[in-house]
Amino acid sequence: MSTETVEKPVMQGNNILKGKKGIIVGVANKWSIAWAVARACVREGAEIGFTYQGERVLKNLDKLLVEENLQKCFTVNLDVQKDEELATAGEAIKKQFGQIDFILHAVAFAKREELGGNFSDTSRDGYQLAQDVSAFSLIALAKAMKPCMVEKGGSIVALSYLGSEKIVKNYNVMGVAKAALESASRYLAYELGPNNIRVNIVSPGPIKTLSAAGIDDFSKMLEHVRNVSPLKKNTSAEEVADTCVFLFSDLSRGITSELIYVDGGHNNVAM
Ligand SMILES: NC(=O)c1ccc[n+]([C@@H]2O[C@H](COP(=O)([O-])OP(=O)(O)OC[C@H]3O[C@@H](n4cnc5c(N)ncnc54)[C@H](O)[C@@H]3O)[C@@H](O)[C@H]2O)c1
What we know:
Layout: E1 21-25, H1 33-43, E2 47-52, H2 54-67, E3 74-77, H3 83-97, E4 102-105, H4 124-145, E5 154-159, H5 172-192, E6 197-204, H6 218-228, H7 237-248, E7 259-262
Parallel strand pairs: 1-2, 1-4, 2-3, 4-5, 5-6, 6-7
Nicotinamide-adenine-dinucleotide binds next to helix 1.
């Protein structure tokens, strides 16, 4: 795994999340986009907690927290496919923090063999798996966490990808799941808006992470974006993180049900 995406933050902290508390869902290792978001939130003065998917991920997370001197951070187990874990995590977060101000949803999964080859070979259970983990999980998470946000309002951000609305070779079943995720974010934004809970999508360009490594020809995607995007470079996890910080902050208080690309402008290029 390259260390390309693990850059030191280019910005100094400005405490724009001071006094805010948030939950980060989706750290697997130091290359995870969610880890860059967590570091940026801490830099900006937020108090954060993490969910983790099982004991193996907890080991990685604990190591990262020690390295970053964040070992006192709250952590709770959460497999988003398990209703009982969603309920337990929601209760544990409420007990720990009372009300929280933001949530990052950075969770996706599809069978390796369905991130390549013929889209029409997608299996029924592979389709359902990708939808459940990558799209339904946002709905389930919002429901489980609503009691932790409903008093003050807050900001939920989920990560999507261009393959939701444009054809991206090999993205296949995940493109359909991301389309559902984006649509779900708009319906959630409508429902939760009266509670001043905002729901937005950030859509990064390709970044080398554990999940991305499962997509056939991923390095060609990176090369293509470097060559054709207006900024002529690949997106870093830190660039994505800074946009999430903005969406978690009061600076974005008028923004909900939106999708923001952080991809060097790649989504706007036709030729
Ligand atoms: N890397 C990219 O190029 C890229 C581009 C656009 C969007 N994204 C999105 O960013 C998000 C984070 O991905 P990443 O690239 O940082 O990869 P990653 O592998 O580091 O993170 C994926 C996370 O999903 C979690 N997860 C999977 N199944 C789960 C389950 N059942 N319950 C709880 N957690 C589960 C994993 O534990 C992991 O922490 C994903 O939604 C991904 O689709 C990634």
